[in-house]
Write a structure and sequence with these properties.
By secondary structure, the protein is of the alpha+beta class. The chain is built from 14 helices and 23 strands. Strands 5, 6, 7, 8, 9, 10, 11, 12, 13 and 17 form a ten-stranded mixed beta sheet that branches. Strands 14-15-16-18-19 form a five-stranded antiparallel beta sheet. α5 links the parallel β5 and β6.
Length: about 450
C-alpha cells in the first residue's frame, strides 16, 4: 500500500520518524478480527485472547464467514473493531451503575450503540442517531438484534437533538473524520486523504459539537472520538471544545500493558491507539465534562401532536401471551405498529413524538394488531421483552441457515401456529407451523442472499 508522502511527514512530526516507520509497517499487516459478545444471549464464540479494555471483547484467530453463522443473525455477538471497544472501559470509569441517559450521535453502523446498549443492560435510556437514512436503517437492524427496549433510534441533524435542552448524561460523538486510522481496513480512505480534507473535517467536527452540546446536562460527559491520528482533528479539537464550550478534560486510568498512547493537550488528555502498539486499528478518544449550561429548551415545549397513547384494556388482553410486560408501557405509534418501552422512558418518548423528532424506532416494535388479531414483528422475536412461554423449535445449523435464507419448508414440531425459530437457544425469528409446511415471517430484507455451501455441517 502506497501512502502519501505528506501523510508520513506529518505523522513523523508528531511521533518521530522511527515510530512512524513502525506504524507504516503495521498498516501493511492484516487487520485483527474481533467481536464483542452479547452478555444476555447464548454464545459459542471462542477467541484465544480477550480484548483487554472490554470484558466482552475477543480476538478471533481468523475471519469466518459471519453471514453463515446463525448466532450472528440472532445478535449473540457484534463484529466490532477492538480499539473502539475502549468505550466499555470509559463508561465503567465515568458512570458506574449505568442507570443514565446516553446519546450516540453519529451511530451507524452501530458498534458503539450496541456496546452502550449492552452496558446499560436495559436500564436508563439510549438514543442512537444517524443523519443518513440508508445508514440509519443499518443501525436499526443492528440495534434490533441487541434486543433491548430502552433504545430510541433517530434520524435527525445534531442541531435538532441539541434543541432538546440538557437531556443526556453522556453524549458519544464518533465524529466523521479523515480516516487515517482506517487505511489498513479501507484502502479507499488513502485515496481520499489530503491536508485540506483534514482541515475540512476538523471544522465540521467543531460544528457538530457546537450543535449537540446544549443537549448535554451540566456535569455530563462528552466522549469524543475519531479514527484518525492528526492533532487537528483530535487533541487540538478537544482543547478547543474545553475553551469554547465550558468543559474540562477528564483523565481515564489505563493499564500500561494495553499499549495505548496518552496525548496531553493544553486543557485535555487524549488516548491514541496506534496499530503498531495495540492489537487494533487507529483510533483516538477523549473525555470532557461539561461545567456550564447552554440551552434550556426541551422537547415538546410547543406540542404539535397529541404524543402517544397507551392501548385500551381489550387490546392489551390480546398481547398478554406475547409480552413479559414487566415495568413496560405498550402503545400504538403513528405507523400503526405497537411498541414497547420501559415505563421510565414514557415522558421522554412522548415529548419526542410531540416535537415530531423523526424516529426510526422507539423501544421494541412488537407487531400489529388488526381486529383483535396480533401479527408479531421480527423485532419482538429477538428482544428481551418477548414472553418466554411462546412455543419454540430448536433448529440445527442446516435448518437455521435454510430458515434465514427463507428456504426452510417444514420443522420437527407437533405444535401448530406461531413458533419461535431458535438456534443455540437464541431466537432467529417467527414462523407459523401449519403442519405440512411453515410460513416464514423473517423480513425479506434480513434474509441471507449468498449461496449456501453444499456441506453446511462442515462450517
Amino acid at each position: 500500500m502506497k501512502l502519501p508522502d505528506l501523510f508520513f511527514d506529518r505523522i513523523a512530526a508528531q511521533i518521530g520518524t522511527d515510530e512512524a516507520r513502525l506504524l507504516l509497517k503495521a498498516i501493511e499487516r492484516p487487520s485483527p478480527v474481533s467481536v464483542r459478545i452479547n452478555p444476555v444471549k447464548n454464545n459459542c464464540i471462542s477467541g484465544n485472547f480477550q480484548v483487554p479494555w472490554c470484558k466482552y471483547g475477543y480476538y478471533l484467530d481468523e475471519r469466518p464467514v459471519f453471514t453463515l453463522d446463525p448466532d450472528f443473525h440472532a445478535g449473540a455477538y457484534y463484529v466490532q473493531e477492538a480499539s473502539s471497544m475502549v468505550l466499555w472501559h470509559i463508561l465503567e470509569t465515568i458512570a458506574p451503575g449505568g442507570n443514565i441517559s446516553v446519546l450516540d450521535l453519529c451511530a451507524a453502523p452501530g458498534g458503539k450503540s450496541t456496546l452502550a446498549a449492552a452496558w446499560l443492560s436495559g436500564k436508563g435510556m439510549l438514543v442512537a442517531n444517524e443523519v443518513v437514512k440508508t445508514r440509519a436503517n443499518v443501525l436499526k437492524y443492528n440495534i434490533l438484534k441487541e434486543g433491548h427496549a430502552n433504545v430510541i433510534i433517530t434520524c435527525v441533524q445534531p442541531s435538532e437533538l441539541g434543541r432538546s435542552g440538557p437531556t443526556f448524561d453522556i453524549v458519544i460523538v464518533d465524529a466523521p473524520c479523515s480516516g487515517e486510522g482506517m487505511f489498513r481496513k479501507d484502502p479507499e480512505a488513502v485515496s481520499h486523504w489530503s491536508v485540506q480534507n483534514v482541515e475540512t473535517c476538523a471544522v465540521r467536527q467543531k460544528s457538530i459539537i457546537a450543535d449537540i452540546l446544549p443537549a448535554l446536562k451540566e456535569g455530563g460527559f462528552l466522549i469524543y472520538s475519531t479514527c484518525t491520528y492528526n492533532h487537528e482533528e483530535n487533541i487540538n479539537n478537544a482543547d478547543y471544545f474545553a475553551s469554547e464550550f465550558g468543559m474540562e478534560g477528564r483523565h481515564i486510568p489505563l493499564d500500561e500493558s494495553w499499549g495505548i498512547s496518552v496525548i496531553e493537550g493544553k486543557k485535555t488528555t487524549g488516548y491514541q491507539f496506534f496499530p503498531h502498539r495495540v492489537r487494533g486499528e487507529g483510533f483516538f478518544v477523549t473525555v470532557l465534562q461539561k461545567t456550564e449550561v447552554n440551552g434550556t429548551k426541551g422537547f415538546g415545549s410547543k406540542p404539535k401532536t397529541s404524543g402517544i397513547s397507551t392501548l385500551p384494556p381489550k387490546s392489551m388482553e390480546c398481547l398478554k401471551p406475547w409480552l413479559k410486560n414487566e415495568g413496560m408501557v405498550v402503545f400504538e405509534g403513528s405507523d400503526g405498529l405497537i411498541h414497547v418501552i420501559p415505563e421510565a422512558m414514557l415522558t421522554q418518548v412522548d415529548s419526542m413524538f410531540k416535537a415530531k423528532v423523526y424516529m426510526l424506532g422507539a423501544g421494541i416494535t412488537a407487531g400489529k394488531l388488526t381486529k383483535d388479531v396480533f401479527i408479531p414483528d421480527h423485532s419482538l422475536a429477538l428482544s428481551h421483552s418477548m414472553s418466554t412461554l411462546l412455543p419454540r423449535v430448536e433448529l440445527d445449523k442446516t435448518e437455521a441457515l435454510l430458515y434465514l435464507k427463507k428456504q426452510l419448508n417444514t420443522i420437527r414440531s407437533g405444535t401448530k401456529g406461531w413458533t419461535i425459530a431458535s438456534y443455540n437457544g437464541n431466537a432467529l425469528g417467527f414462523l407459523k407451523n401449519l403442519g405440512d409446511r411453515i410460513n416464514n415471517y423473517l423480513p425479506n430484507e434480513y434474509r441471507i442472499l449468498m449461496d449456501l455451501p453444499t456441506d453446511i455441517t462442515a462450517l
